[in-house]
Amino acid sequence: MTAPYALTDLATPEGGLPRALHGLAARSPLTFARRAAELAWEVGAAAVLDRLAPLAPAMLRVEPGRAPAAGGSLALYLHWSPDGRVSAMVRAQLAEWRAQGFAVVFVSNAAPPEADWDAAGADCALRLQRANVGRDFGAWRDAAALAFARLGTPEELLLANDSVLGPFRPIGPLLAACRAGGEGIFGMTESWGGGPHLQSYALLARGAEPVGLLAAHLAAFRDSRSKWRVVQQGEIGLAGRARAAGVRMAALFGYARLLAEVEEATRLSLGPRFAEPAALWRYPLNPCHHFWRVLVERMGFPWLKTELIRRNPGRLPGVEGWEALVPPREAALIRDHLALMGR
Fold first, then answer.
1. Backbone angles phi, psi at 158, to 5 degrees
2. What is the DSSP string of 277-342?
3. DSSP readout, 230-269?
4. pTM of the model
5. How far apart are CA 222 and CA 218, in angstroms?
6. pLDDT, tens digit, for every residue of 158-179?
7. Comparing C-alpha atoms, which of 48, 82, 83, 57 is closest to residue 226?
8. Distance from C-alpha of 289 to C-alpha of 296, rounded to nearest angstrom
9. Residue 150 and residue 126: Cα distance in Å, rounded?
10. pLDDT value for 90
11. What residues does each domain of the chain span?
């Protein structure tokens, strides 16, 4: 395993490639054309519906939790599940973020049963339930507005969600590495699809200017029915905003550093397009999907992406063997969470 953890500044914009090539990289031309048509329909239909019937975010429930809101570190944690249940894995994530010094705001885009709502309060300073619009950035926007008003402006602001399974390794060293970076906006994995940016399942802003920039970015977010537009406006837009303001952005698992750890067998398993090592640099891939095993086995990554394990949309080989890389206790929590999500 490559350790210790270290921050790597995002690549320059020239290092990124259009998001369209992300899809082309791992698909045949015919499959890519089909997916491109589906995406064009999704984006176009959403644009029409968003204009004719704008989404209306609504906060449905606001209640305090039972954890004290001490210190200057604030975490906004987004939850969703089909029936609103809050799994033991999610509760463990809430407890872990609290243990790392954060006052946790739990915001659900679902309707948690009363027992689960109460259980989530054990490690949270504030609990919010809202209408399921705007996905993660919409939820973080609304949670930030309420949390800042009630708890004050933090010195560091964490955005997190339940799109990752685990952690099955301590996250204290990852947080320590981010905090040692001083002021800036720090994340776990860097993606080059659409230009270098941080993937948003765990983003940490530290310092007055970075926290203010992230808060302003959230406040400017506009809800859309299109997942593609949410990513474009949310994750990729944040990178552009930070770059324009001169705010540092860095990742613990930078994309270039990740590619340097990819072995030949992994590269060849991605298909004939990657027969030459240089192809990894030409085509941007999803680090948490295409290189999940490299991240976990060689770089000390403590999570698995929920979508990868539930759906494996890229039909990547070996995903079904994920449990061999996870300690038994955490594997059991993950299995229970997947069952709750309707695997």
1. -110, 130
2. TTHHHHS---HHHHTHHHHHHHH----EEHHHHHH-TT--TTGGGGGGGS-HHHHHHHHHHHHHHT
3. HHIIIIIHHHHHHHHHT--EEEEE-HHHHHTT--HHHHHH
4. 0.92
5. 9
6. 999 999 999 999 999 999 999 9
7. 48
8. 11
9. 9
10. 98
11. 1-343
